[in-house]
Amino acid sequence: MDSLHLPQPTAAQNNGNKDHNESHEKNSKEVRANHAHSTVALVEERQEAADPWDLPELKDTGVPWTALDTKGKVLRVLVSVLKLILLLGGLYLFICSLDILSSAFQLVGGKAAGDILQDNTVLANPLAGLVIGVLVTLLVQSSSTSSSIVVSMVSSGLLTVQLAVPIIMGTNIGTSVTNTLVAMTQAGDRSTFRRAFAGATVHDFFNWLSVLVLLPLEVATGYLYVVTKLIIDSFKIESGEAPALLNVITDIVTESIIQLDESVINGIATGDPEARNKSLIKRWCETFINTTLMNVTVPGPENCTSPPLCWSDGNYTFTEKNISKTYNVRKCEHLFVNVNLSDLAVGLILLALALLVLCCCLVLIVKLLNSMLKGQVAAVIKKILNTDFPFPFGWVIGYVAILVGAGMTFIVQSSSVFTSAITPLVGIGVISIERAYPLSLGSNIGTTTTAILAAMASPGDTLANALQIALVHFLFNISGIILWYPIPFTRLPIRLAKGLGNITASYRWFAAVYIISFFFVLPLVIFSLSLAGWVVLVGVGAPLVIALIIILVINVLQKRKPGCLPAALRSWDFLPLWAHSLAPWDKVVGVFTAKCCCCCKCCQLADDEEETRETESLENNNTSLTEVYDNPAMSAEKEVENQINLDLKTFKMTHF
Fold first, then answer.
1. What is the pTM of this model?
2. Could you give the CA distance from residue 448 to residue 648 in angstroms, rounded to a whole number?
């Protein structure tokens, strides 16, 4: 750079421009050189910021295959086979832990779920029915279980199919919380967490958006009920058996740990008084019911089974009646069959163990995938999963992914298991979020086909109702796919999930706020307002919904057409910072975490993270200064000033 010199002014020019130079020195801090005139900019081009949603390269850091000798090649093959076995074993235990987790939730909240569904007056409100479907599925952690409860209530006449439709929509939302919780286990790395949480919540946003459109449509027109009723009336469907598939393999482990009597929850929901005193833990797996015609006493002749079978003897009235008695034949064989603990205690034990195994298996799966998917293997897998067909058939690959998702979910018989399995793959960058979206849509279809086959195994008297409810679930998901997938600009769940992923990558605590707010607080608030009646629900909810719509419209106009808004509304700067930014809340969470952190190691980690942020901020300031000035040495004075300001801020934060 020494060869580049500015023209030297003459003595006359120096005298003539003396006053001008003095004025220039006073305003030197305001001078900004054009990037095109900067000697640094001419030599060093600024690198464009990388897209955080680009799939990372999984580089192979090991020795190339060609550089290995025979012993090394044999050893690598054996290690690869061992990793594959461990991966399959970890995936198997992961699926089993999800099944145990579902059983644990049923033990903890299964009877409460039955009580919630028993209140038929509340279910008459479609919005309350939707929320009840969400809450019940959250309690039992299985849309299949909650759907079977609804089928039992419809079959027993306690609930009509029309009232069951919103509940089925709610079960679709409640089952999507599992993979969102799985994404929380990948919060250690910021980039991985961004992709994993977005890949999980794209399923959530699809379900919520579908409900926002289809629930009002169903209330106004009865669209889902009418169409499924026409299908049921048009075909003569005979009952059959539902396939077991993957359950045949997983039941070996899960049934050796715990077995549940799900008829207890159904009995509570259908109003059976004896079911409330029964335990959900199955004690006897084989029973024998003996029915005998016996003479019994009744209060009066009107209580007799029939007049010919009724007689009196003094003050007593007798009749003949079939009495059934259950004899226990064979006890179940699982860990808790002889344990004298309450359902709640057993449920909490299983909940802790299932979460521990689930997290360990997930960490093992992610580590093994990171180890195995490197170099050429990663390139091939990523190309297969994320490639598109040549023009003009590029749109076909999305529908192929939907079919793959439906087929895989049909095999594992659980949308939660399938979406939870692909969440870590999205996190490590093997599957893009654009490909995870149709796979999740396919999982919704797959779980409904399983429900249809299960409904076809119902007895003849309940077959029509069970099958219609399963078809309602199927048609709801098909309608949602038609709304939010075929046209690219309608794929709002992808954009919303990416936006939420960016927020949670910067503020990881916001992920917990999202889960608690959308899956617990919001449903509970709506359910509480529903108990107070329509007037209270509309009076409180309508103003909030209108305010939310206005805020969304203003946000869209601020980004796309700010000129259409008044000057005051072109930004939210007129509000306090805490009302339109998460940064102040992040400081509050940081202070609260620091107060709660007892060990020095945790405090040291927090200090290191804060120091890293300050260092990155200082580096960004230095980069901007280097771009502005012709000579980097001209920025030295500004660097000193920035360092003084940084030291003052650090001093204030330390003594606050």
1. 0.65
2. 61
For residue 481, what are the contacts with CB-CB under 8 A and spacing of at least 6?
402, 441, 444, 445
Helix (H) or strand (E) holding 323: strand 316-331
CA distances from 83 to 64, 424, 564 (A): 18, 17, 59
- How large is the average pLDDT for residues 136-162? 72
309: tokens are 């079978």
| Strand 284-298 to 310-313 pairing | unpaired
Cis geometry, peptide bond prior to residue 562 (ω within 30 degrees of 0): no
Q: What percent of the chain has pLDDT over 70?
A: 70
| pLDDT single digits (tens) 26-60 | 444 444 444 444 444 333 444 445 677 766 665 55
Q: Exposed/middle/buried for 227, CB within 10 Å: 0-12, 13-18, 19+?
A: middle
Which residue matches tokens 């030295």?
636
Residue 232: per-residue pLDDT: 84
Judge whether 106 and 280 are in contact, CB under 8 Å: yes
Question: 465: buried, middle or exposed (CB in 10 Å: 19+, 13-18, 0-12)?
Answer: buried
Q: Which two tokens stand for residue 350?
A: 């299983």
What Å distances lie between residue 114 and 102, 170, 249, 309, 403, CA to CA?
16, 15, 29, 38, 35
- Dihedral over Cα of 146, 148, 152, 153: its sign: positive
In whole angstroms, what is the distance from residue 117 CA to residue 154 CA?
A: 11
With both helix axes pointing from N to C terminus, report the angle between 126-140 and 70-118 in degrees, rounded to the nearest 10. 130
- Measured CA to CA, the distance from residue 131 to residue 125 in angstroms comes to 10
* Residue 520 near residue 117 (C-beta atoms within 8 A): no
171 in Cβ contact with 146 (< 8 Å): yes
Q: H or E segment at 351?
A: helix 343-372
Residue 135 phi/psi, 5-degree rounding, is -65, -40
**DSSP string computed for 470-508:** HHHHHHHHHHHHHHHSSSGGG-HHHHHHHHHHHHHHH-T
